[in-house]
């Protein structure tokens, strides 16, 4: 296996990269359970690769062929890998989501991802199997570019991941989250935030140098505000799209977003400086006692000097850079009037089982019996008919070359980071919070920027709307979903089936892809219900639970019914809703106790080489760097 690349790259290495020929980069990944304790609070099982966690970074150059041989040695869970942000042009079957572009890889099976990368930038890879990546199967994917417009402008590059951390396994949290015991759909709240999957991260820097930081939020749920004391950030890339340089004091990065920025160090080494990641607590329905929403790291100029506590910051939004003001480096202009408009309304509501689900246009996603790609490949001319993909996949069929406009109206009061597979998109419009639907906003073509920002994950504000645009130039099956993993589980997913007849003419599915279906007993031909005779007969498809009976049609009514009726009817109503524990209370009972004035974190440093999970226990057990930035 190619060893994980440390965060630091010298100029010399960058020069070497620029002369490198397109190569094949091969990774052999055995996916296994390991034990880790990244926040120093709690040992727990995590999903590692080749016996290690954090998992290795995938590194390649633009033009390289990347081969990832996955062997699932978990024993008790299926898995898959998605390469977040990669276009997978010509290799849509390598995109990763289970029941979409492949069958999940069952325990004991192997599967090879093989694709060519023709895009530079900062990406990541993660499991795309039911709620799994927050258990640890998430890592950076960096594509170096000999033609980067910023290549001469920095001395070294560093990868900085943000994430949130739960003490409980997703398999323990998910049943309580989607249950009649949680009728409001309150998402489990993480215990801690992490930098590079640890805490008290020390980043050694030299004075008077410029660093390219590649920042990735690999979290399950929390967006984070990030700032560096005493230093400015100059943004040069978001989600793989180079931007005109833009100065920022504070960056907001949702789950799955990336941002690269240049940071020039000070000329003297008289002090060290804190940098802080602070979780956006407006996303959380409750703030449990064991929640520690800040994580601190330090730019270390001098090991002998103290590591200062970060100063208190209270106005987060007021200082935060607005990504809508970014201008792509290539100045790609606004795509013309759309050929096709898709409008999606985001709704959270209860179904007849009493649990809370997430909906696009009254449909909560249910995985089809046949992976959507295999339905596209096995239904002939009917592959252009959205009906064959079933009634619960929110499928929209796109034709080659169409300019597609996607309007998303948030009828929910939470922020949602939406991600589209297979491309980046023009972020044409984002309303303020509480603006209502796009129609309410009264916006016309003339209000759109002439050179819109592009990215692959974009935050929609509470009760607001966004408009995205892209050209359908990449045949494949591309999910559009909220990247909060809880909302993936509760169904906030739509499916774009792009140029399915082209897929039939161009794609050949490798044998090992079909073999994992056989091993997992998943059908690979027919419509979403695995019907091969009458392709328009969906009987037997996977369905969402039935709606609530009349009079119980909204979350509000359910909550009201719960609070009033239970008083009146007592035990009968309680029995109907069940007595499952509150998952928020269940989400963790461990409390942070680490308190010390001196932070000793000799491990977990960038550039110190791969650390084992065990080392992180020691790294974070003496630190208190996560306190004090926000009360
Ligand atoms: Cu980061 Cu559907 O993916």
Short description:
Residues 30-147, 156-302, 365-500 form the Plastocyanin-like domain. By secondary structure, the chain is of the alpha+beta class. Helix content is 14%, strand content 30%.
What helical percentage do the residues reach? 10-25%
Structural class: alpha+beta
Bound molecules: CU-O-CU linkage
The CATH H-level homologous superfamily of the largest domain: Cupredoxins -  blue copper proteins
Main sheet overview: 6 strands, mixed
Helix tally equals 12
Shape: globular
How many angstroms separate the termini? 45 Å
Strand sequence of the main sheet, in spatial order?
A: 10-9-12-17-14-15
Q: How is this structure best described in words?
A:
InterPro entries: Cu-oxidase-like_N, Cu-oxidase_2nd, Cu-oxidase_C, Cu-oxidase_fam, Cu_oxidase_CS, Cu_oxidase_Cu_BS, Cupredoxin, CuRO_2_Fet3-like. It is a single-pass type I membrane protein. It comes from Pseudomassariella vexata. By secondary structure, this protein is of the alpha+beta class. The chain folds into 4 domains: 8-14 and 146-331, Immunoglobulin-like (Sandwich); 21-145, Immunoglobulin-like (Sandwich); 340-519, Sandwich (Immunoglobulin-like); 583-621. The chain is built from 12 helices and 30 strands. The strands form 6 sheets. It has a 6-stranded mixed beta sheet with strand order 10-9-12-17-14-15, with no helix packed on it. Strand 20 and strand 21 (356-360) form a beta hairpin. The two termini are 45 Å apart. The protein binds CU-O-CU linkage. Residues 82, 84, 97, 126, 128, 256, 419, 421, 479, 481, 483 line the site of CU-O-CU linkage.
């Amino acid at each position: 296996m190619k060893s994980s690349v440390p965060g630091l790259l010298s100029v010399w290495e960058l020069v070497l990269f620029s002369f490198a020929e397109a190569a094949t980069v091969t990774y052999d990944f055995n996916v296994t359970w390991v034990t880790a304790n990244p926040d120093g609070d709690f040992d727990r099982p995590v999903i590692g690769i080749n016996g290690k966690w954090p998992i290795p970074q995938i590194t390649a150059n633009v033009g390289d062929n990347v081969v990832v041989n996955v062997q699932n040695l978990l024993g008790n869970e299926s898995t898959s890998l998605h390469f977040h942000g990669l276009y997978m042009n010509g290799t849509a079957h390598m995109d990763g989501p289970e029941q979409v572009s492949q069958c999940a890889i069952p325990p004991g099976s192997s599967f090879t991802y093989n694709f060519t990368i023709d895009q530079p930038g900062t990406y990541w890879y993660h499991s795309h199997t039911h709620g799994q990546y927050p258990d640890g199967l998430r890592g950076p994917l960096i594509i170096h570019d000999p033609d980067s417009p910023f290549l001469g402008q920095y001395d070294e590059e560093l990868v900085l991941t943000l994430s949130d951390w739960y003490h409980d396994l997703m398999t323990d949290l998910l049943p309580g989250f989607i249950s009649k015991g949680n009728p409001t759909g309150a998402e489990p709240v993480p215990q801690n935030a992490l930098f590079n999957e640890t805490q008290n991260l020390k980043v050694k820097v030299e004075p008077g140098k410029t660093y390219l930081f590649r920042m990735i939020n690999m979290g399950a749920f929390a967006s984070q505000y990030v700032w560096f004391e005493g230093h400015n950030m100059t943004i040069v890339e978001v989600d793989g799209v180079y931007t005109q340089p833009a100065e920022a004091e504070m960056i907001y990065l949702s789950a799955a977003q990336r941002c690269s920025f240049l940071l020039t160090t000070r000329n003297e080494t008289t002090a060290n400086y804190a940098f802080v990641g602070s979780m956006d607590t407006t996303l959380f329905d409750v703030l449990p006692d064991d929640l520690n929403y800040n994580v601190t790291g330090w730019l270390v100029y001098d090991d002998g000097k103290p590591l200062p506590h970060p100063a208190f910051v209270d106005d987060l939004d007021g200082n935060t850079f607005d990504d809508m003001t970014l201008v792509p480096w290539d100045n790609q202009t606004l795509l013309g009037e759309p050929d096709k408009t898709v409008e999606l309304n985001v709704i959270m509501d209860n179904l007849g089982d009493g649990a809370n689900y997430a909906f696009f246009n009254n449909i909560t996603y249910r995985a089809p019996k046949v992976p959507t790609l295999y339905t596209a490949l096995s239904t002939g001319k009917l592959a252009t008919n959205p009906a064959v993909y079933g009634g619960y996949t929110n499928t929209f069929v796109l034709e080659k070359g169409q300019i597609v406009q996607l309007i998303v109206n948030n009828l929910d009061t939470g922020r949602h980071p939406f991600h589209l597979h297979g491309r980046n998109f023009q972020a044409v419009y984002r309303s303020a919070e509480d603006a209502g639907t796009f129609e309410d906003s009264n916006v016309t073509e003339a209000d759109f920027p002439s050179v819109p920002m592009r990215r692959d994950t974009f935050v929609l504000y509470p009760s607001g709307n966004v408009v995205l645009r892209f050209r359908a130039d990449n045949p494949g099956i591309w999910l559009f979903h909220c990247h909060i993993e809880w909302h993936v589980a509760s169904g906030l997913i739509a499916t774009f089936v792009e140029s399915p007849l082209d897929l039939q003419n161009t794609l050949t599915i490798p044998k090992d892809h079909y073999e994992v279906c056989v091993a997992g007993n998943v059908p690979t031909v027919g419509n979403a219900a695995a019907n091969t005779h009458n392709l328009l007969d969906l009987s037997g498809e996977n369905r969402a639970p039935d709606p609530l009976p009349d009079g119980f049609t909204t979350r509000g009514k359910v909550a009201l019914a719960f609070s009033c009726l239970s008083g009146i009817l007592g035990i009968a109503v309680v029995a109907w809703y069940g007595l499952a524990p509150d998952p928020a209370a269940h989400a963790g009972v461990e409390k942070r106790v680490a308190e010390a004035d001196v932070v000793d974190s000799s491990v977990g440093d960038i550039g110190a080489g791969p650390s084992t999970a065990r080392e992180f226990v020691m790294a974070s057990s003496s630190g208190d760097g996560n306190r004090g930035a926000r009360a």
